[in-house]
């Protein structure tokens, strides 16, 4: 099977396309995650950090970061012949949050990427998706110099509902990120089914 076409004699397969958001704080690895799995060259809207942004961009803990996403990252991954995910990475700084509503339109679910060194930076993303009833998964990006904590400790620190998945991942590793995305799809499907059942009963 070649994407968009099928083998001779077989009817063409129309893939189901799903939209997943990748959110989290500044410098948590959203751009890296999208780039790790995208089968196309990711669309990136990164700009250099400047002196003008220093008063509003908290770079403590990520002092080596020199660029920032100002609109979105975009990538695509085919999980199966008939299932394609479009990934939209959100900008992390507060002054760009006005774009989140546009990016969230039609999203199946989201990944909230967390860094245990700056866990408070993902509170806003967790709150955003909870308020809008968008199913999400928390992916703890395991940076090499960050302390490792049990999943339940992270859940408690973020005050997450018991049904919100929390997984450890490496945003640089394709297989690790694929597992996170599959987890988001599965959680979103279960979440939607549960809400549909609640409405009909």
Protein described:
- This protein is α/β, with parallel strands linked by helices and 201 residues long.
- Helix content is 28%, strand content 26%.
- Residues 49-54 have low confidence and may be disordered.
| Physical arrangement of strands within the biggest beta sheet | 2-3-4-1-5-6-7
Which class of secondary structure composition applies to the elements? alpha/beta
Radius of gyration: 18 Å
Helix tally? 5
Tally of DSSP β-strands: 7
- End-to-end separation in angstroms reads 42 Å
Task: Identify low-pLDDT runs.
Answer: 49-54
| Mean of residue pLDDT values | 83
| Shape descriptor | globular
What percentage of the residues does DSSP assign to strands (E)?
Answer: 25-35%
Compressed to H and E, one letter per element, the order equals EHEEEHEHEHEH
What percent of residues adopt helix (DSSP H or I)?
25-40%
Q: What does the main sheet amount to?
A: 7 strands, mixed
Oligomeric form of this entry?
single chain
Comma- or semicolon-separated keywords:
28% helix; single chain; alpha/beta; 201 residues; seven-stranded mixed sheet; 7 strands; 5 helices
Could you provide a short overview of the structure?
The protein is α/β, with parallel strands linked by helices and 201 residues long.
Give the secondary structure arrangement, pairings included.
Blueprint: E1 16-24, H1 30-37, E2 43-48, E3 67-80, E4 83-89, H2 100-104, E5 109-114, H3 123-131, E6 136-141, H4 151-158, E7 166-169, H5 174-200
Parallel strand pairs: 1-4, 1-5, 5-6, 6-7
Antiparallel strand pairs: 2-3, 3-4
